[in-house]
Amino acid sequence: MFIKNQIFAAPLAGITDKPFRRVIRMFSPDVSLVTEMISCHSLVQGHKNCPRNFDRYDDEGNIGAQIFGAEPDVMAEAAKILADQGAKWIDINMGCPVPKVATRSGAGAYLMRDHVLAGKIMHSVVKAVSVPVSIKTRLGWDSTHCDWRDLIDVAFNNGIKFATLHGRTRAQGYTGSAVLPDVTDCRIPVIANGDIKTLADADRAEKLGFSGVMVGRGMLGKPWFLNEIVGENAKPDNVGAVVLQHLQYVIDYYGNAVGVPMFRKHVAWYCVGMPNSADFRMQINTITDVNELKSAICEFWGCVCDI
What we know:
Blueprint: E1 7-9, H1 18-27, E2 32-34, E3 38-39, H2 40-44, E4 63-68, H3 72-84, E5 89-94, H4 99-102, H5 115-128, E6 133-138, H6 148-157, E7 162-166, E8 190-193, H7 199-207, E9 212-215, H8 225-228, H9 239-254, H10 256-270, H11 277-284, H12 290-301
């Protein structure tokens, strides 16, 4: 069975921001976190409309900062900035399938099609920082190009310390079932990603030679879920109090105008499977005032609301 430092929280765009990571840390102080993917250009140019460009990571425990881009020198500069901001390691995104990243930008999953460029990026980033560097990738571009093992060999040759492998191709996106291969003969440790939803899923990954598991969508509405992967009964007695704390972290970070509409999706995930949750989701989707949202949360979960 994997132990807690072999459990990773996946980078999820628009979700695993600093407020969400703070909630995860309430339950899982020892797991490894990864930031949302960060554009190397946005970071290096200091775009002020992207608050994660200015995050500090000193107080976030074992956290890696994930960057994406297609220019080795800019990726190296971004890695240096993130290491200076306290990231414990740098992760290079080589698996994002969305068109604006993987096709129009020539980054993310596109690097599975250009192992020469991928190697240059890895080499530049590894040379630029003193912290470890990892990659996150997929099985391949499509079902006829499942050359993940070749890319991991490139990673080994360029000083990458470990890789995360998502068990789908770029063509699959996030559809269909993830299929994890046997990685026992890989020359660097490999972390399993994709459809890790139960302790049994983690055990199967371990039998295939994986050195840990990375959980993504299984965390939605369940920031305590990472502890369940190691066999703990981690769900809190008062979920409503967790939702309120998460909301406060979001408001502190983004402000009311941005934070309230942004938080609606989290409330919807938290209430999945509960009685009257469909009506509740319709209700919160019209709320724009933070105090009204807090009151609705308290009423639904039956918790004390201090506003």
